[in-house]
Amino acid sequence: MIKRLLALVFLSAVFWPSLLARAEDVPSPDGDSYYYLEVPPGGLAEFFRWHPLRIPLVSHHRGGPAPGFAENSIEAMQNALRYGPGLMEVDVAQLADGTLILMHDNTLDRTTTGTGDVADTSWSDVQSLTLVDAEGKQTGHKVPRLSDALRWATGRAILTLDIKVGTDFSAVVREIETAGATDYAVAITYSLEQALEYQEIAPDMMMTVTMRNTEELAAVEASELNKDTIVAWTGTRLTSKDFYQMLHNRGWRVIVGTLGNPAYSIDSQIRQAGQDSRYLDILNLGADIIATDRFWAVQSQILNPNIFVFTRSKLYR
Q1: Cβ atoms of residues 16 and 218 within 8 Å
Q2: Span of the secretion signal (predicted)?
């Protein structure tokens, strides 16, 4: 039965999730339940407002790929929810005909049965392709449009959208609004300037804003950003407990990235040491959300059924 959650060495970056999946088996989850996040209408900002009793969450890099489940696929995200609730970080790209799809690379070659540049391809060509997993095996799953992912996410998980270069942010916002998914979508920004540009287009949209040190924090505070729409991204290196507390004092939840190049990422260090409990240390340091390539490992540490209230719901189709 489904449980519905009521709760407010150098390697290329392109292959990070794939290499982790190859290096480590992903265990099967206990039972056949799915863990869904529900956000009350208009409640996303409140959901992300920091509270001392906050519930720790996982952000699934590229939608939580695993053997048999390709990155940036709806099927991978649904599978990941068998391990626990959370955010789904996905990549949004735009095709030549304007269609918005989930796709990380600039080409179709690595993750699909097709070839060629994404920006030069139309939806009529992409929709016939099949996604492949990290081992290059065909999954039988299709490339999702952003609209498909937004409809899937509503009532299930929050999408954090990594909007690729050349993709029209205004078009992304229109799709979110058309899908009625404003409570389930967060924009990822990579600079204060980009955050301000996004805010001009979508003033009320939640967004991640980079604050890795006190200088970047001060710049955000001095800016005209809406402080109620911020989730603090603090990068892929740990900092001090005091700094995380400064962010909490401003009401912002903190995302810490353990993902990254397998040669030196925190995920890789923890895996090699065989000490998954170190994810709890990161939460105790001040992280509220862990962005990871090892979602199953983090969920095994943080999932505590005593924290959550569940009701049963119909099986996902």
Answers
A1: no
A2: 1-23
141 burial (CB, 10 Å; 0-12 / 13-18 / 19+) is: middle
Instruction: Identify the residue with better confidence: 19 or 270.
Output: 270
pLDDT, one tens digit per residue, over 164-178 is 999 999 999 999 999
If we measure between CA atoms, which residue out of 211, 206, 212 comes closest to residue 228? 206
- d(Cα 72, Cα 275) in Å, to the nearest integer? 28
Neighbours of 89 (CB within 10 A): 25
Sign of CA dihedral 60, 65, 69, 73: positive
pLDDT classification of 193: cutoffs 50, 70, 90? very high
pTM confidence score: 0.90
Neighbours of 37 (CB within 10 A): 22
Tokens of 87: 């955010």
Query: Other CB atoms closer than 10 Å to residue 87's CB: what's the count?
Result: 22
Place of tokens 């696929």: 73
pLDDT at 12 (0 to 100)? 37
Q: Domains of the chain (ranges plus CATH)?
A: 2-8+16-88+156-313 (3.20.20.190)
pLDDT tens for 225-270 read 999 999 999 999 999 999 999 999 999 999 999 999 999 999 999 9
Return the number of other C-beta atoms located less than 10 Å from residue 128's C-beta: 11
- Cβ neighbors of 267 (< 8 A, separation 6 or more) are 20, 258, 259, 260, 292, 293, 294
SS3 208: strand
User: What whole-number distance in Å separates Cα of residue 157 and Cα of residue 154?
Assistant: 7
Query: How far are the Cα atoms of 48, 120, 139 from residue 205, in angstroms, in the given order?
Result: 12, 29, 34
Judge whether residue 118 has pLDDT over 80.
yes
Question: How many whole angstroms separate alpha carbon 67 and alpha carbon 97?
Answer: 32
